[in-house]
Specification:
homodimer; five-stranded antiparallel beta sheet; two-stranded antiparallel ribbon; 11 strands; 41% helix
Chain lengths: 328, 328
């Protein structure tokens, strides 16, 4: 749920006057994205999404994110296309915040992706990697492996409060991943989405129709992006076990990797590194969820994701010794 | 903000199969209405709103609300039209809740209505009253004058906690309104919206394009509906006074009443009763806001409307001795 900034009637009218988009016919706050305010905006020229950037997205980094979407959209990749205002800039200011209008993308985010959707998502991710191949923008992953030791050091003591014994378990993961030094692995790099959860992908039926929310995109190892998707798409609660732990859905994970490889086959080094990358990706999301969880007061109406979901994934990853363990 | 109930992929697909609306192309939670879950739903057949009814709306009363919208839409009045499912019913069940699909209405809810919008809103309200003239449904206003004494008795002690002295002031209003016995006044009755705040009305530019959210609609005095609008549309913070109290915007109030009368002239008894009705309407919203306010824990992320806004309106109403005081 994400409508933080209210837009006044006058502000909206003035804002729209900076574009060749006609006049507003509809304007509704929508529950999309969790870091920005998003509005469904319909004008006499079509349907759009208006995004206002809250404090979570750095103004300095906006040109990278917006430039990437422009670049991808121009290659024909299905992602929202930033609309250029009359002054030549896609990034404007509205209600004291940076704001953009992007094109409206059809499709629905799956709540519980099917095997076919996982396969098509994998292919979509690989298409994005290829489409962004010559994108000149660079951005360091602020939540990449180099950040984990410090993030963990600042919050390690909070893990045991969530589940006794978790601090020691996580310490072992952090130590082993540090030793493996993911960033030193000889893996192909490029522009990655880095947050491709089901709510950031659209489908019509089983068909992948687009990717949204590039606000964690960065320069990184391509296979790490796939490893993030393995964590985000292929684990699920076993309905027969009444919520007793997450299960790796092998069919979904295998389909995801197969779909990816149907567009961009993994190099041998990527194939070999997959278990380490999957474990690293789980650490990255565990850490940010741990931080959000600890920062949220008891009784808050909007609860963040439970970090234990990622502790559950890590328990699986620890046992996987090769990419075949994920279905590759 | 109002997306409480999540709809699974399978549930949505099964739900849509009950209609002749094709397949889903987009489905987004929207921040519209405060009592129900609302989704923007686009299908191969068009754009719609899907509403799931939360506990706030009684299932027994749904046929009245939905029937009213069907009736009004058939007369050509601009309101969402409930879509009939293949089984002949507009009211269905989804995720364990009653649910309807209604047609999508273009237009924007004004944050700070203009004088012209107030005039057109008044005309729109009168059009609704005439359009619903022969609607056979009846519903007692659960928050009408007969309910105020008991609501107040249960919460009177909470008013002083909000502002010292408020309990005594309100007691006087309640006593005087009880004595005046609004329901005994010989005023024309019919179906009223009873909650026509700016977020329940749509405009394109200055033109009124529709009315939504009929979930407080009931049988009542037509002029009371106008009195609610006077409270909801014609009071505003004076920007020059730094939030120091609400002001009655005489131009907006006069325009609202003039617009109403351009379609349905007030009878002399309605004209005479307007100050009492306006005061009563302010009491009604003060009381429900007082209850919501007291029921909300400190630190909650979503704060209810401050009841003091209505205490401010009551301070104005106490001084008005005739409809002319509102610009009638």
């Amino acid at each position: 749920m994400a409508v933080y900034t209210q837009v006044s009637d006058d502000s909206l009218q003035e804002f729209l006057s900076r574009y060749a988009l006609g006049t507003a016919l509809s304007f509704k706050g929508i529950a999309e994205g969790i870091q920005n305010s998003n509005y469904y905006l319909e004008t006499t020229e079509g349907r759009f999404i208006l995004t206002l950037f809250e404090k979570y997205v750095s103004e300095d980094e906006l040109p990278f994110f917006i430039g990437l979407k422009q670049y991808l959209a121009k290659t024909g990749f299905p992602c929202p296309e930033p609309i250029i205002a009359n002054d030549g800039n896609a990034i404007q200011t509205l209600e004291g915040r940076k704001a953009v209008i992007i094109s409206f993308l059809e499709g629905l985010s799956p709540k519980r992706p099917t095997v076919a959707q996982c396969k098509n998502l994998g292919a979509g991710l690989a298409r994005m990697h290829l489409a962004a191949k010559d994108f000149p923008g660079k951005r360091v992953d602020a939540l990449g492996p180099q950040s984990w030791i410090e993030l963990w050091a600042n919050h390690a003591n909070e893990a045991d409060a969530i589940q006794p014994g978790l601090t020691a378990l996580m310490q072992q993961d952090i130590d082993e991943l540090s030793k493996a030094d993911l960033l030193s692995l000889p893996l192909p790099e490029g522009t990655i989405h880095a947050d491709l959860f089901p709510d950031n992908a659209f489908f019509i039926g089983e068909e992948f129709t687009g990717m949204i929310d590039f606000y964690f995109a960065c320069t990184g190892q391509l296979a790490y992006d796939l490893a993030i998707c393995i964590n985000a798409w292929a684990f699920e609660d076993d309905p027969l076990r009444n919520g007793d732990g997450l299960q790796y859905n092998f069919s979904k994970g295998a389909a995801l990797i197969k779909g990816y490889q149907s567009v961009r086959p993994l190099e041998p080094a990527e194939h070999e590194a997959l278990p380490l990358l999957a474990r690293g990706a789980a650490i990255r999301f565990f850490l940010t969820r741990l931080i959000d969880w600890s920062a949220t007061p008891e009784g808050a109406l909007v609860m963040p994701h439970n970090p234990l979901d990622y502790a559950g994934r890590l328990a699986f990853h620890r046992k996987v010794t090769s990419a075949e363990g994920y279905g590759a």
